[in-house]
Amino acid sequence: MGERFHLPAVASTLLPVALCMLTLLPHSILGRPAEEENAGSSALLQRVKRGWVWNQFFVLEEYTGLEPLYIGKLHSDMDKGDGSIKYILSGEGAGTTFTIDDSTGDIHALQRLDREVKSQYLLRAQARNRLTDRPLEPESQFIVKIQDINDNEPRFLDGPYQATVPEMSNIGTSVIQLTATDADDPTYGNSARVVYSIVEGQPYFSVDAKTGVLGGLAGTTTVNVTLGDINDNPPMFDQRLYQMSIPEAAPVGSVVGRIWAKDRDIGLNAEMVYSIIDGDGRDQFDISTDPTNLFGIITVKKPLNFEGKPSYTLKVEGANTHLDPSLRHRGPFKDVTIVHVSVEDVDESPQFESPEYYVELSEDAEIGTLVKTISARDPDAANNTVRYSIDKSSDPEKFFYVELTTGSLMTVRSLDREEIGWHNITVLAMEMNNPTKISSVSVAVRILDVNDNPPTLTHYLEAYVCENAKAGQLVQTVTAVDPDEPLGGQRFYYSLAPEAANNPNFTLRDNQDNTAWILTRRGGWSHQDQTVFYLPIFISDGEQPVQSSTSTLTVRVCSCDHDGNVLSCTAEAYILPASLSRGALIAILACIFVLLVMILLMLSLRTHRKKPFLCDEEENVHENIVRYDDEGGGEEDTEAFDIAAMWNPREAHHHPGKMRQDMLPEIESLSRYVPQACVMGGGDSSVHGYVLAKLLDADMDACAPPYDSLQTYAYEGEGSVAESLSSLQSGTSNTDHEYDYLNDWGPRFKKLAEMYGVLETNTPQMW
């Protein structure tokens, strides 16, 4: 609410009715008052008779006449009236605002004067000889003052004004104080006196007019008075009962509904705070105020379950937050309403008994071991059947299986902690009646360690001993590694293998800190006697069941300098020069390259020479000679193969209708070389003769495959370094196999080389 009223300010007008003309004081008084005061105190100073006088008076502002305004007259007592004296005017406005008649000394105003612009002017006057222009009197100053008239209305400089007053304020309460200013002279008359009155806005407001005379010029301004609100109205709910609903699957924090306790006040006085003061849903729901502080927002505080409780009742209170203590008697400033919340039933996904599962399983668990039984149920009233499965992406290698109906999680593959230490499996539960309702749970399976890996030597499988080494000198410090992780930490035991325990060259010392030293037993090492020693080392761990392994350490005899630095470990180093030029090295590498090319060429030619000659007919045979186009019928299948051909091949030609057409060319080709004498007899002799004939046929004709061969492996081993391993065509080669390359395969193939009789006679001892 607001009121607007106009406030005039009136200045009284007192116009002067007469102007007093005053005689100007002598120059000595205006310009030099000190000299006149001290004139009688000194005999040396004499009173000087003034030489010229002039008249002065106050000039009214805002002169509107047509003729120049007469100001005053300058006159010197030296002026004889003969025109020999010239009057000169200087100072503020001389020549522009004021002018002087140089003969008579009359001063006039040429422009309209305004006291509010300039209230006085400081001028200087002097009388001079007209002919010689010599000053007859010293220059004197005088002031022309502008007299004020009431020509300015009072003004409100800051209007329009805004004011606020609380509603229900007492009569006489101050609303706002206004000040009007008047540019007229406050020291002269009543021109600047201001009085106030209300033009519009009665009867709600009044103004202190002060003392003064109303009339004259007036100024007005507008004052907008706004009624400020106070909290004098209590809030009220527009409903005594609110009905709301929310699905049971709504997550925590979901909005159930909104209520509003209306308040006729505005702003801070209408702001509300809401709270649930009673009801069976106090722990299930919460209420807060929206950003405008007007509405109450009811939200879900805990998960809902239709099957557990389908409805709730809330008693909600809304109260003002800003209260005026002086108006408490108009309260209470709060209200209460009832909110009924219905929970809607929805088809929910199955729920697991636990939000997650953790299982520990030994890595030696047998296939089919029960890991955990995962259980889920349909929370709906229908309680539909639940089926279980494993998310394939969580078990891509299929180590586990979950039983479809019981949820039993079992192993289907052997586990290895050293390969995969954790399995994070996602088990899915699905409703049978609604396959879209699927829920999942995480099953973390930790694989427990079992001592199932033997320790082995790490990194250093080759060492060297200098020719100048003495007995008891350290050759190598060996360490072992075991992928198992026992709870008490690793503990390794070292010893030489039984077959090398009493060797005369090296010994082993277990340092009891998971390391061992290889020491020399003698001195006098020579590279020419033996270049390499193979030392088998036996390693075992301290866990049950004990795991052990044997690793071979290769020890080379090398020539070293006095500091033990290796110079060379090869026999060729003793016959080669100390250094080779770059050209010699390039030549050696070129020769090696040519030699390799020749070896590859020879191997290629040898491979082509050993490849058997095949007839076109045999190259095209990639199927069984006897082909079955239909499923066999056991003993009733008499069409697949004619046994008569075995007893009497010639008889096959007398019954063409009973033969398989696809076998006719093959059988003819196999039987055309059979001598007549071989098939004349009956019984076993016929079969025996037939087989002998076919054997002779196969040995003599390389293009004829064996009759009882169902598949031809003509290309076996093609492209392999080892070539074909088949015994077919072996009779065509008169070359003997060479097994010398077994000597280059190391000590592990020593036994194989001995079996084929290619072991070098000068093989050095192993350790």
Automatic annotation (TrEMBL):
Spans traversing the lipid bilayer: 584-603
GO CC field: adherens junction; catenin complex
Domain Cadherin: 76-156, 157-214, 238-352, 353-457, 457-579
Cell location: Cell junction, Adherens junction; Cell membrane
UniProt main location, coarse: other
Entry-linked Pfam families: CADH_Y-type_LIR, Cadherin
Keyword Cell membrane: yes
GO biological process, one term: cell-cell junction assembly
Keywords noted in UniProt: Calcium, Cell adhesion, Cell junction, Cell membrane, Cleavage on pair of basic residues, Glycoprotein, Membrane, Metal-binding, Repeat, Signal, Transmembrane, Transmembrane helix
Span of the signal peptide: 1-31
Membrane topology summary: Single-pass type I membrane protein
GO MF annotation list: beta-catenin binding; cadherin binding; calcium ion binding
Keyword Metal-binding: yes
InterPro entries linked to this entry: Cadherin, Cadherin-like_dom, Cadherin-like_sf, Cadherin_CS, Cadherin_Y-type_LIR, Catenin-bd_sf
Known role: Cadherins are calcium-dependent cell adhesion proteins. They preferentially interact with themselves in a homophilic manner in connecting cells; cadherins may thus contribute to the sorting of heterogeneous cell types.
The protein, known as: Cadherin-20
